[in-house]
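Quick bug: Choline transporter-like protein output formatted oddly.
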Amino acid sequence: MSDDDDLKTHWDALTTGGPAFIKDSISQFTFKALPLSVCPYNASKCIPFPGVEFGELYGGYCSFKMGADVVAAMGTAAAEIFESTGLASFQDSSSETLGKWMGDFENSLPAFILVAFSSFIIGFIYLVLLRFLIKFCVWFAVLLVFLMLVVGGGLCWIRSKQCSGAGLLETGQQMAVAVAVTAQTTANNAVSGTEAVSEAMTGDGADYRGVQTRTKNGYQCEAWGEGNAASYNSTLYPSSGLTNNYCRNPYPTGSANVAATIWCFTTDTSVTWETCTPVGVITPECAAGYAVTNNEVRLVLEIVGYVLWVIAGIYFLLVCCLVDRIRLAIAVNQVAASFVKDTPRILIMPILQAIIGILWILIWALSASFLLSQVPEDYTPKADFREKNAVLHVSTFAVTPGGIRILRGSLGNCSLRDS
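Here's what came back:
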């Protein structure tokens, strides 16, 4: 180590009094300083990274390059990585697959051409029809975006309330029925001036005296004492409130066969009876747990649903505010459509442009193929591969018992001197 280095004292301590393995390691270090013409500083400040060589780049200019040992080590490491990860076999299989694809493409080339031509014609017809149906397409797109936001928010919200074992559509249907029944009951009470009946119930619903007339899936309830419910009447069950076709949970005192909640017989022949939920209860009660077991995920789904609904509301307000601009844009396109109608020859222009583009590509390909075919097979442009001799003179360097001796030399056209 050079005398000007700040760490020379510590270096000398290691080389003289350090462990044997440290001395062996130090004896293997050899560093070569850069020439003064490139690095006009003290020798200790001009040592490049190990494995980096210094050679002539062009016209007497010098540059760094990786040594042969480093390149070989990197190649070996890359090969080991390829073998350990199976990338080599992946490369072989990819090459084989690519070759098979190219063969299939050549065999199916006529079909590809036919499909491309058909796609062009269909796309052209679509663009023409779009001009004439622009009003319907624009308003349909506006409505579709609004529905996507509303339905997307609804699906997220329903998923957050879905019970274990129940389907997503089934849960959505039950919630929709609950919302519709609640809205209908509220509207009827408001119109008739009737005071809302309490929908409270406890436990299995034996004390429920609400006015729910539909099951959880929307089936209409059958009146008690009629049809399938003939054996259930106020005489046999005086304390169960069996009036009209309201959902109830009638059972004798001390009976072991008791429903878990309120229910009723239905007027649908395919469904004899089904359970109900009180009016105003939108989300189902999941006794067996939720389909999404993680509480945080359910909360996130619910919040995302609300956010999408808010965005849908903002989107609706923006559409209402920009309705005049939308109509103006539609009118402009309708004028363009009328121009196309009055000037049908303009429809030929896209077809001519496509044909000209295809012909241009074919002419270019034929010209390139012709030029390449004129090159002799044994032709080699030797003049383009001249070798430039760069003489590399490096002075010797040695390791002394007291440390590493750093020497300078000459490199190509770069002038070097001993330090």
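Actually, after a second look the formatting is fine. Residues 384-419 have pLDDT under 50 and may be disordered. Closing.
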